[in-house]
Amino acid sequence: MKLLKRSLCLILIVVLLFPTMAGCRTATPKSQVTTYKIGFMAAITGGASFLGVPERDAAVMIQEQLKANGSVVVGPDGVEHPLEILIMDTESSPDTTISVAKKLIDDEKVVAIIGTTTSGTSMALVPVMQEAQIPMISMASSSAIVEPVSERKWIFKTAQNNDHTAPWQVRYAKAKGLTRVANFHVNDAYGEDGAKAIRKAAAEQGVEIVLEETFGAADKDMTAQLTKLNASDAQALLVTAIPPAAAILTKQFREMNIDMPIIHNHGIGMRPFIDVAGVEAAEGVLFPMGKLVAMDALAEGDPQRAVIQQFVQDYEASSGNAPSTFAGHAWDAIMLTIEALSRIPSDVPANEVPVRLRDELENTQNFVGISGVFNITADDHVGMSADDVVLCRIINGEWEYYPPENW
User: Fold this and answer.
1) In terms of domains, do 280 and 306 share one?
2) pTM across the whole model
3) Is 184 exposed, middle or buried (0-12, 13-18, 19+ CB in 10 A)?
4) CATH number of the domain within which 29 lies
5) DSSP codes joined into one string, 275-319
6) Are residues 55 and 176 in the same domain?
7) Mapping DSSP to helix (H, G, I), strand (E, B) and coil, where does residue 244 land?
8) Which SS3 state, helix, strand or coil, does residue 208 take?
9) Do residues 53 and 152 share a domain?
10) Whether residue 280 is found in the same domain as residue 304
11) What's the alpha-carbon Rg for the chain, to the nearest Å?
12) What digits encode the pLDDT tens for the residues 49-101?
């Protein structure tokens, strides 16, 4: 667990996972100690499994690390609380998501639920968690998951908002003198939220949206929408979607020889996009995402640099694969929860732990994660900004950091 030793910003988690180093173990009888159970729900199977499997793998990695250090959370008073992470499959289905969540709440008495993988299933889960008054940390993107905060008291998330990434899409277009753009998006919660964020960013930066089109997540043919694009006076195509639809759109965009930049949102920050679109079609595609892709280019003083580098090393050793940004969302969600639990005194009754956990999550400051540096408040249940995002492009089948000075 080199990461937790090296990152000064995670001192409390060092105490959590290495309690003997802090000399704070106590002899409190186990019968008097609350066991903390965290429900972890990801799309391990089904249509969103290419996102959910990396999330699951991040959770398994943390399970392994916790087990090696006693599987306990050490509170501020030195009391050890047994910790369990219960990994469940949503099957990419809203119905299954709700059923699994209710089992975790009613039968397992979890103190929090981390999930889910997609915006649609996360939105389906919001009313369940609000009614149960159990904290939920989503790994999906749509800002509607946590907004308005006044109606989402128990809901948090670790993926950047489209409001954080859309400005980068528009900023690049404007920097290249492309002031007339098309706004394409998948017709689901994520896509609609991204399109709204692009409209807002375009208005703020003086860029005109001359065409808007939608397509389905399962669509295999977007040539009708692309034909309209080709006939318009748009100078760049801005897209909000995830694979496979995002990849199919890109492949057909190239096949039609449309001569303009295509700038996706962060939903394509995964290998399946390149695999489905093909290396040739993916070449030159631009998109914003968290700093994971730029870890080696980050300044030595960037607080995320060492955290991300160690996360990548640990994840590869555990899973045998390179992590995606979605694995990072899972790591952030679990570690934010654990860190918040480590601030709850042992005299808090078990039935009040979820309430205290919610409050501690909302008071999280300067937590250095994979997706960004989290400063969560009562008015912001994400706690990140556009400063936690960089622009990337795909070159020779690989992602690369594309800093503004190279535009």
Assistant:
1) no
2) 0.83
3) buried
4) 3.40.50.2300
5) HHH-HHHHTT-EEEEEGGGGGGGS-TT-HHHHHHHHHHHHHHHHH
6) no
7) coil
8) strand
9) yes
10) no
11) 21
12) 989 999 999 999 999 999 998 999 999 999 999 999 999 999 999 999 999 99
